[in-house]
Amino acid sequence: MSLKLAKEQPQEIFTARTVCDRFGAPFDTVARVLQIMNHHGLLQSYKGVKGGYTLSRSLQTVSYKDLVEMIEGKTFMMDCHDGPCEFFKSCNITQPIKRLNDYLLTIFSSLSLEELLAEDNLLALKKIPLKEIENCPVTKGMKHEN
């Protein structure tokens, strides 16, 4: 939401209150997310009475995956290997989960925030990089990325 505002007015300074008022979001959440994006260099903060935030990087250079990891503070993964349960060795869904994770990482890494926020963007028509993912029938036979 703050990125949408920043994209619409890239040089304008906006505040957490502006974002809250425009999108009806809770102040504490918005303020924390803006601080995180500032800390990671996506936004630039200005202190003082007329202070606030501006966009400091092109949204074309930041992927959806980057943003999720920035805000969540952890790697974007859906994987059983970090904390296997007692059924890990006999589980029949660990490989499908790994393939799904690999596929989603490919998509989310290739989707820029500029594309995500485009009003006329039809995500279904976006060209996804061709990348064969190990043992995935959906990507079988695709050309590998270099």
The number of E-state strands comes to 2
Overall 3D geometry? elongated
- Overall mean pLDDT: 78
- Rg, alpha carbons: 19 Å
> Given the helix and strand composition, which structural class is it?
mainly alpha
| Helicity level | 40-55%
Write out key terms for the chains shown.
Arc Repressor Mutant, subunit A, elongated, 146 residues, mainly alpha, two-stranded antiparallel sheet
Please give a structural write-up:
The chain is mainly alpha-helical and 146 residues long. The protein has helices at 2-8, 16-23, 27-39, 64-72, 94-110, 113-117, and strands at 43-46, 52-55. It has 2 domains: 1-57, Orthogonal Bundle (Arc Repressor Mutant, subunit A), CATH 1.10.10; 62-146, no CATH class. Helices cover 40% and strands 5% of the residues. The protein has a two-stranded antiparallel ribbon. A hairpin with a 5-residue loop joins strand 1 and strand 2. The mean pLDDT is 78.
What order do the helices and strands come in, and which of them pair?
Elements: H1 2-8, H2 16-23, H3 27-39, E1 43-46, E2 52-55, H4 64-72, H5 94-110, H6 113-117
Antiparallel strand pairs: 1-2
Q: What can be said about this structure in brief?
A:
The protein is mainly α and 146 residues long. It is built from 6 helices and 2 strands; from the N terminus they run αααββααα. The protein has helices at 2-8, 16-23, 27-39, 64-72, 94-110, 113-117; strands spanning 43-46, 52-55.
